[in-house]
Structure formats: structure tokens, C-alpha cells
Design brief:
The chain has 512 residues and is α/β, with parallel strands linked by helices. The protein folds into three domains: 184 residues, Rossmann fold, CATH 3.40.50.980; 175 residues, ANL, N-terminal domain (Rossmann fold); 73 residues, 2-Layer Sandwich (GMP Synthetase, Chain A, domain 3). It is built from 14 helices and 27 strands. The protein has a five-stranded parallel beta sheet with strand order 4-3-5-6-7, sandwiched between helices. Helix 3 links the parallel strand 3 and strand 4. Helix 1 packs across helix 2, helix 2 crosses helix 3 and helix 7 packs across helix 8. It is globular.
């Protein structure tokens, strides 16, 4: 089984079923598969071979979807790169993986030209857009997807890939230094997709709305899992216009809606959506960062017939855990148990497993764990370490957790996020959860700042609802009523917005 079989099998079973809905149109599985075949043949004709890396620099679109499957169909390795990436970073990624081909939008030529021209390994550039426009600054052989997709060569290419071959490299932004390329083989991605679709109980009748960038693995997997199940995926470019998204959920009878906390924060300000009937919306899932308990409670109020899945994951293994919906009231602060076909456990600083209730580093064991970081053996060795069997490697996540007697996980902090104040170790997440209990708080981030007396003082950055009159003193007083004294913020700073990563996580770097 290979990742491209998700599309090919569904196209064989029901070629006329709608696979993808975008603002440009509605496309059947047969059509999507044939377009991907055409791109595959165009890549082959230009000498792109099995194992070559092909960068895809496109917004959420039909072109992006058929391109990634086209690359897989020839045994290539695709890279989904966020199209807002700037020239310097793009140049680094292309050279780091030694990309052989590039697929991008003609509208991004100023960024594309400089990056591609400075990538010696790059031989071919494939562009979307109007082929009558000039692109004289691009010093690489170039082609147009519109011409390729109008060709007649749509038959299935011959493939000699096995499931241990790499399918993708996903570049993750670290807090410092250059991004790292997470290598995922076909079997890694298939294992993750099988596990996630199992606990989400996905079926062919599902209609999944994806507003997340497919350069983000959470967004990418909505395509992969939808095609695996033979479902329909509604692909939007973003959540920029939330009322439009709500209209799409209702109009298309969406059954699955994956979100991140940033989206939930926006949704929960839209009081008037309560008037709508979302009885067709079967589930909302969340990952990237844990949903605050207050958000979960309000989402259930806004979507009373919808199941909420609180999940935790990281790019290096795609997904770690999910909280069974029947546990939301019992363990609202938990991110659940390890997903099917995976083992999770917690270790101390010496790598020994700890008893329930003790905080330690979370370790993940399973076929969903990455193959490593692209050509970064030292970084790989920090994350992938020997497991219980000879030759086995397990993933040390770098995240601190505790586990209860029944095996449910509770996120404490990133190892490097822990605040040391008054000699005590303080979890920012615990304080943030309390801040979210304040009705007027939309977003919150807690960091440690240097303090000559405390070592580190606790500082909270808070975004309030429009028109709120909440003060710093009132905020600190609320925290003092709900937290131990050493956990109460010394400072509270109100902001209009908080910085975000490309994946919607609040970016704490630089806040302190």
C-alpha cells in the first residue's frame, strides 16, 4: 500500500464521485486521478526520477492536490511549502533537500525566481497562471500546468515504489536556526491515516471542510484521509472570512471540521452562529496546540449535536493521542490516550519509565514515527533513540506530560517552556487554562521574564474581546483565586493580537 493508492483506489471504486470541491469547481475522483497522471508523465518526460524531491509552493487548490499525487505516482518525494515563505527560507529549503523540480504560482515569480535561480540542483519549474505573462527572470526550464493538464496523456504511470520509500519531507520551523526536514515514508503516513480515520470513525459519506494550509501536516492529512476513505473534501484557502466558512458548512452539509485554537477563538466570538442548525456536522477536531477547557465548553454550547475531538500531535509522528468524546466531561484537561497502533509512555531524565502522576518526557513508539530529519544526524539522534527491541527507534517528543492511572495524558509544557520562579517549576499551560476561564479573554500566552529576586517572573500576554474593560489588577486577582501563589502572574500585558506560527500556534519566541 502506498499513499498515492488512496486516490487511485477511490478513483477505481467510484470514479464519478466528487472528491474535491474548491472555489474553481467540483472534481470527481476520476478527474483528479487523471490530472495527477498527466503531471506524473510531465515530470517523467523532464527527467524527474524516483527519489527526487519536488517542491510544491501553492495555496490550497486543485493544482496543489493533483501535483502532490503526481509526484507520488512517479516515486518522487513531495514538499508542501507554505506559499507565504520568504525568499531566504525558500532558497534554504530547496538547497537543503536538493530539489529537482519546483511547482509554483506565476503570481509568486519575484520570490520563486530568486530562490530557484540559486538552487543548482533544480532543473525544471512548473507554473500555474496565465502563460502569456513574461517570466524572463526565471533562469530555469519552465512549463505551465494548464498546458500539461489539457494534454491527453492521462494513463497510469508504471511505479516501482515500496512503502519504505520516502513520500514527503515536511519542513518544521524550530525556535532557533534553520527548519528541519521531517522525513516520512509511505508506511509512516499510511499508519497515521489508518489510526486517525479509525478513531474519527470516518466513512465514505463524510464531507470534510479543510481551511488549514496543506503545507501544514494537519491540513495535508485532511486530503489524504478523505481520499483514503473515498470521502469529499471541501478545500478553502483559509479561515480569513469566518462567516463564509459557516455558510459553506451549512451549504455543503459538512460532516467534519478540523480546527486549531486560533480558529476556535474566532468562532467563539461569533455569537450569532448559535441560530444555525449544525446537525449534519458530526465532528470538530483540534490539534496543533491543546484547546483550552473553556473553549471546549463553549464549542459544545455552540455546536450541541457535534462531537469534539481534542487531540495532540507533532509533525515527527503526525498524531500522538486523542481524547474519546465520552471523556470530555470526566477529564477535560486531558489530551487522551495514544491512538490505535501506537504506544506512548513517560520517562525521566535517564530514560526510565515513571509511575502514574509523575511528570516526564513523552515517548512515542509506532510505525507513524518519522524516519528522521533530512541529513541532520545529530538532530535526529536527539529525537530518535533506541527502543525496547534491538534496532528499534522511538520518538522522544521534547514535551513534558504526566499520565494518570488509566493511561490518559496531560500536557504540562515544552521542556524549554518551563518557568522557574521562586525555586518552583511552573507550567505556562496551567496558568493559561485559568486565564481562559475569564469570559473576556480570547487568547493568552504565559512566559517567564528575568527577575533579580524571583529568578523568573511570570508574565501573561492577553487578547481581550472588543470593548472589554478588564484590567491588569482584575486579571491578577482572578489568577490568585485559582492558582498557587508562585504561579500567579506578576505582569499582565494586553495586546490586540498575539504572534502566530504558520500552523496557527501562538508564537512565544520574542514575547519575553
Amino acid at each position: 500500500m502506498l499513499v498515492n493508492h488512496f486516490l487511485e483506489n477511490s478513483a477505481a471504486k467510484h470514479p464519478d464521485k466528487i472528491a474535491l470541491i474548491t472555489k474553481e469547481g467540483r472534481y470527481s475522483y476520476g478527474e483528479v486521478n487523471q490530472m495527477a497522471n498527466k503531471i506524473a508523465h510531465a515530470l517523467i518526460a523532464e527527467g524527474v526520477e524516483k527519489g527526487d524531491r519536488v517542491a510544491i509552493f501553492l495555496d490550497n487548490s486543485l493544482d496543489a492536490v493533483v501535483s502532490l499525487f503526481g509526484v507520488l505516482k512517479i516515486g518522487g518525494i513531495f514538499l508542501m511549502i507554505n506559499p507565504t515563505t520568504k525568499t531566504e527560507k525558500l532558497t534554504y529549503i530547496l538547497n537543503n533537500c536538493r530539489a529537482a523540480a519546483f511547482i509554483g504560482s506565476q503570481g509568486k515569480l519575484p520570490v520563486i525566481s530568486e530562490a530557484c535561480n540559486n538552487t543548482p540542483s533544480l532543473r525544471n519549474v512548473f507554473l500555474t497562471g496565465d502563460n502569456r505573462l513574461s517570466h524572463h527572470e526565471l533562469h530555469k526550464k519552465s512549463f505551465y500546468l494548464s498546458e500539461i493538464l489539457s494534454s491527453s496523456n492521462g494513463h497510469q504511470p508504471v511505479l516501482r515504489t515500496i512503502d519504505a520509500d520516502l513520500a514527503t519531507i515536511i519542513y518544521t520551523s524550530g525556535s532557533t536556526g534553520n527548519p528541519k526536514g521531517v522525513m516520512m515514508a509511505h508506511f509512516n503516513m499510511i499508519s497515521a491515516a489508518n489510526s486517525i480515520t479509525t478513531y474519527l470513525e470516518n466513512v465514505p459519506d463524510d464531507i470534510i471542510l479543510n481551511v488549514l494550509p496543506i503545507s501544514f501536516d494537519y491540513g495535508l492529512y485532511q486530503i489524504l484521509m478523505g481520499f483514503k476513505m473515498g470521502s469529499t473534501v471541501v478545500l478553502e484557502k483559509s479561515f480569513l472570512y469566518p462567516y463564509k466558512v459557516i455558510d459553506i458548512i451549512l451549504k455543503e452539509k459538512v460532516t467534519g471540521f478540523p480546527i486549531v485554537p486560533t480558529i476556535s477563538a474566532i468562532l467563539l466570538q461569533m455569537e450569532d452562529i448559535k441560530k444555525h442548525n449544525f446537525e449534519r456536522l458530526r465532528y470538530i477536531s483540534n490539534t496543533a496546540a491543546a484547546l483550552p477547557v473553556a473553549h471546549i465548553q463553549k464549542l459544545r454550547e455552540f455546536f450541541p449535536t457535534t462531537t469534539i475531538y481534542s487531540m495532540y500531535g507533532l509533525t515527527e509522528c503526525k498524531r500522538v493521542s486523542y481524547l474519546p468524546p465520552d471523556q470530555l466531561d470526566i477529564r477535560p484537561t486531558s489530551v487522551g490516550k495514544g491512538m490505535p497502533n501506537e504506544e506512548v509512555y513517560i520517562v525521566d531524565e535517564d530514560g526510565n519509565r515513571v509511575r502514574p502522576g509523575v511528570v516526564g518526557e513523552l515517548v512515542v513508539r509506532g510505525s507513524n514515527v518519522m524516519r528522521g530529519y533530512w541529513e541532520m544526524p545529530e538532530e535526529t539522534a536527539k529525537r530518535l533513540r533506541p527502543g525496547q527491541y534491538p534496532g528499534e527507534m522511538v520518538l522522544y517528543t521534547g514535551d513534558l506530560f504526566r499520565m494518570d492511572e488509566e493511561g490518559y495524558l496531560y500536557f504540562v509544557s515544552r521542556k524549554d517552556d518551563i518557568i522557574k520562579s521562586r525555586g518552583e517549576k511552573v507550567s505556562p499551560k496551567e496558568i493559561e487554562n485559568v486565564l481562559y476561564e475569564i469570559d473576556d479573554v480570547i487568547e493568552a500566552a504565559v512566559v517567564g521574564v528575568e527577575d533579580s529576586v524571583l529568578g523568573q517572573a511570570i508574565k501573561a500576554f492577553v487578547v481581550l474581546k472588543e470593548g472589554s474593560q478588564l484590567t491588569e489588577k482584575e486579571t491578577i486577582r482572578f489568577c490568585a483565586q485559582h492558582l498557587e501563589d508562585f504561579m500567579v502572574p506578576k505582569y499582565v500585558e494586553f495586546r490586540n493580537t498575539l504572534p502566530k506560527t504558520d500552523t496557527g500556534k501562538i508564537k512565544k519566541t520574542g514575547l519575553a
